[in-house]
Amino acid sequence: MIKVAFYDTKPYEKEWFESFAEKYGISVKYMESKLSEDTAVLAKGCSAVCAFVNDEIDKNAIDVLVSLGISLIAMRCAGYNNVDIKYAKDKISIVRVPAYSPYAVAEHAVAMLLCLNRKLHKAYIRTRDYNFSLNGMTGFDLHQKTVGVVGTGKIGRVFAEICRGFGMKIIAYDPYPSDESLEYANFESICKKADIISLHCPLTKENKHIINKESIELMKKGVFIINTSRGALIDSDALIDGLMSKKIGYAALDVYEEEGDVFFEDMSDVPDRDEKLATLLSMPNVIITSHQAFLTNEALENIAVITLENIKEFFESGKCKNEIQS
Ligand code: NAI
User: What DSSP letter does each residue of 126-190 carry, written as one string?
Assistant: First the structure.
């Protein structure tokens, strides 16, 4: 049996891993702690660790894992901006799940667009209170609106396809255009022309805060911004200023740049709150979900199966098709 230390365990993922692990000859030690330099030692006795989006896999954490003889970090997600992959090179291998359900994330982006535009979040609360007034509930037709898709990989393309079904005009920005059916433009044009901008690119050093004071200034008044990718693609201060000045009409966020310590947890009893997050949450034209765009049964099953396959393949052959190359 290959022993794997599973960090930041949540019940909705544990059930899927539990139902498949034995079949792959893997025994899993489930732990609630996030992986960091302080908790890496908990993996003692295991051959691999399994980590998620908000684990902190920096130099120090890697050093501890290596000192314990651990040879594999199996990310159960697509993104790996939280791993120091340069430092890991030649010390420890890293594998990931490059795709598990682009539909889950793209559909969530569309759900947030519809919900915030048509005020479903308010209607749900109002009608439960027997309040049937329509004041303040006006939305806009998506039909014929221009949506700017930033990043046209697996998720961005599914998102564009759904938007096409609504009769929207689609323009896209991607440094590596890959879809001949899409009209590509540079990022500046997307900012100038789009009524709705949806982010579907990975977070890199180059595109950190791609939505910032300058790019917001280029945008149409009342622009609708959707981010289901990574929080740090947006400069939160600039976003708040844009919302306050009404330059930005709506923000639908599944991710937030400082989400690490709060998302996925019940923090309702904690009075010490991140001020920017609290400000955003107080705004009527902002909707925030807790990095849940991936959360469908289909995605969870694929994540479990592909992660377990990655681990098995690595320990059987010493390599894995889903290994991250630094
Ligand atoms: P992908 O790798 O298939 O596509 C990413 C695309 O972004 C590629 O076409 C790439 O060329 C493009 N790109 C790279 N840098 C760019 C830039 N600066 N500007 C515009 N485009 C750029 O990735 P996939 O599967 O479509 O995922 C996209 C992102 O979605 C992931 O990187 C991750 O951050 C996020 N994600 C969020 C989830 C959630 O639950 N909220 C779940 C899964 C992914």
Answer: HHHTT----TT------TT-EEEEE--SHHHHHHHHHHHHTT-EEEEE-SS---TTSEE--HHHH
Residues 6+ apart with CB under 8 A from 62: 84, 87, 88, 91, 92
Nearest residue (by CA) to ligand 1, atom 37, is 229
* 230 carries an active-site annotation: yes
* SS3 state of residue 236: helix
Q: Is the CB of 100 under 6 A from ligand 1?
A: no
323 catalytic? Reply is no
- Chain position carrying tokens 């690595």: 314
Active-site residue flag, 259 = yes
d(C-alpha 62, C-alpha 68), whole Å: 10
**How much is the pLDDT for 261?**
87
d(CA 248, CA 286) in angstroms, rounded, equals 10
Going from the Cα of 228 to the center of ligand 1, the distance in angstroms, rounded, reads 9
As averages over each run of 10 residues, the pLDDT of the chain (326 residues) reads: 97 97 97 97 98 96 98 96 96 96 98 98 98 98 98 98 98 96 98 98 96 98 98 98 98 96 93 96 98 97 98 97 92
Contact between 178 and 152 under an 8 Å Cβ cutoff? The reply is yes
User: What is the model's pLDDT at position 326?
Assistant: 76
- Residue 173: other Cβ atoms inside 10 A: 24
pTM of structure: 0.94
- Cα–Cα distance for residue pair 135/112, rounded to 1 Å: 21
